[in-house]
Amino acid sequence: MKSKQAKPKKNSLISALLVSTTMIVPAVSGAKTAVAQTEVAQSTYSFDISVNSIADGVAQIGAVSGWRIAYSIDLPEIEGARIINGNMSVPAAIDILLRGTGLEYRETGENSLILTDPAAQGSHSDNAVTDPVLIETADAQTDLPPAYAGGQVATGGRLGMLGNTDIMDAPVSITSYTSEKIADQQAETIADVLQNDPSVRAPNAETANLDTYQIRGFGVNLFNTGEVSFNGAYGVAPTYRVQSGMAERIEVVKGPNALLNGMSPTGAVGGAINIVPKRAGAKDLNRVSADYGRGAQAGGDLDVSRRFGANDEFGVRFNGGYSNGDTYLDRQTKETSLGALALDYEGDRFRASVDLIDQRENLNAPAREFRINSGVTMPDAPDGSTNAIQSWEWSDAVDRSGLVQAEYDALDNITVFGSFGGGRTELDRLFGTPTITNAEGDYNDAGLSYRRFQTDRWSVSGGIRGEFQAAEITHKTSFEATRYEDVLRQGISNAGVTPSANIYTTADVAPVAVNAPSVKPKTSESELTGFALADTMGFWDEQVLVTLGARHQSIAVNSYSNGAISSSYDDSVVTPMAGVVVKPTENVSVYANYIEGLSQGDIAPPSAANAGQAMSPYVAKQFETGVKLDFGTIGGSIAAFQITQQDGDTDPDTNVFSADNEQRNRGIEVNVFGEVTPNVRLLGGVMFLNSEISKAADPDDKGKRPVGTPDMQINLTGEWDTPFAKGLTLSGTVTHTSEQFVDTANTQDIPDWTTLDLGLRYKTSIDNTPITVRATIQNVTDEKYWSGVNQWRFISLGAPRTALLSITADF
């Protein structure tokens, strides 16, 4: 048993919007449009470059300096080599590169330029850019879609077996957050980043021992097996929580996607989350960060990469991190570590990579979500630093995993690919679940137990993709076979007593002795096998794209009790997809899709008249249509969707368990991203959600709103590069979530809430060493609120006012 005493710490919609407005409005009104070659103080870099094309020069200048250098024009050829040698600013280097070409440039923000062609645009000061902006960055991977203007999101992302796809060509909704956004947000986990999307919420507290997600109103559960893929493969990312230090991109595809990614380990249907790991870029990288905050947590990160070989074909990148100290939560201390090693090879036809991950998290007094007894009025939320878990309760998690991937261009238009990976997660913990028993906030620590979990998992995939043209129709065809397996072991020792206290006082409770389980018997094993074929056809110079495909998915699950199989499940189903994209202009893309999701059907419980009967796999169905806009420096989308998901329940009259329940979520999403002006960036949007139990075995449930599904979610982040201090950027984020029901009967709820975060970052250079200082205050108004309800009716407490500070240096 562990025990460590931590010192207690104390840390309105209208007020939040007022503060946000006072920051953003002056930013927009005071921002001046940049003209080409503005004379400003610039950091200098040591260049030693010889190139034979402007494109190569752009890439190498960006690699040396870390600047984003964009172009949306045809680049002319140059005669001979352009030599850029010596210490100079990026604009000075660009001047040399463009000399005699007639091209010019203008600044589009901090450390970013765009090349322009006055002859094509009509005038040197023309700021309109109608084509998608292509951005080269120092850390960019050659196979990734480039970052969009502003650098916060990418121009595309991975659509499972369809591979990387531009957002304007994708027949589904996808957002890919960049490593720049992750760093500027000072994100500790991927959950921090994903909550920038108005359709996503992570209801579990960051001070708990696991993350869960809600996407389009449906739960995504990381419990035991995990739902996050790593470079497209399940079973590799850490199970309970994923630290952000290993991520080059964090991608979310919204809606069911059984064809694209295969059935996820626990059958999530709201969306799919994928981590794109970091790779060594063209520029040697030596990056060191130190941070302090989230209470009294201190830590640091290391990011180092190199390329080797005659043609830089071998790459190695290591990301390490460590933090420790008291959090903002009473009694809690937290220790985390991360080691992620990425090796890659890039040849003319053969490419391969190896990823190794070691992630650990130790928590004393880990936060736990609350339960509430039926019929009890939900009490007001206490202060966000309140902790109902005692200092003698704890959680230790260790994740180790690896992934090998390779692909070979058998012909110029045919690529064979494959991967093999897996991991082991070990979680030991001693805590219970605070259950509220009355409106005054009294609770008991129900289910106090010492548990030991071990999850072993592995996955393998292989396939072939090709591109060809027939009868003036282009085809991008993919075939993929996947296999995923996991084994869960769990040992439990229950406490003999149930401690109790009150959520507003959380008085210290005497330690309860619970012996560690002596064994970890196998409790379940799963096997998921899939075969999928898809083809994207392009008509009329790919102004119309049609995607058709289907996946045959098999599900086999055994549950164990006392070493013997207690229940078994084995079934299969074919899930189709149809999508269409029409691009009437270069700036507009209209899309629609029908796609299905898949999860294991239930087995009728022992109390049912048909006990032991297995339901067929539950199928979720989505219809979606929308419009995507891309004006070069700013883009957005509007989408309307309907998702229906089967579920099982017992008929109260016949006592027969069936899959006759159905949840139906209808929604509208509006998103915006990019640069409003060269010095102002926006990211965010709103989701309106109409959800209901549309079919129910129990007539009393029909028409009710499902647990944890708010009817509106809003996110808006604004950034302003100040004109009065070069390198200084101010930011503000408003987050709003409306009322959510806690029970199926819709008699218990948590109220809506709004928070405001304010931040700044300052970029400078000391002795030619780029330095970035970042500071953030989260929940500036110190709102007290319940942040969310997950699908198991667990209620999370929102965080109090919290400060974060970090400094990063590139050597």
From TrEMBL:
Cellular component annotations (GO), alphabetically ordered: cell outer membrane
Compartments reported by the entry: Cell outer membrane
Entry's family note: Belongs to the TonB-dependent receptor family.
CDD domains per record: ligand_gated_channel
Primary localization class, coarse: membrane
Key words of the record: Cell outer membrane, Ion transport, Iron, Iron transport, Membrane, Receptor, Signal, TonB box, Transmembrane, Transmembrane beta strand, Transport
Domain of life where this protein originates: Bacteria
An MF annotation (GO) of this entry: signaling receptor activity
Pfam families hit by this protein: Plug (PF07715), TonB_dep_Rec_b-barrel (PF00593)
Position of the signal peptide: 1-27
Name of the protein in its database record: TonB-dependent siderophore receptor
A GO BP entry: siderophore transport
Bilayer topology term: Multi-pass membrane protein
Domain Secretin/TonB short N-terminal, residue spans: 69-118
Disulfide bond is among the record's keywords: no
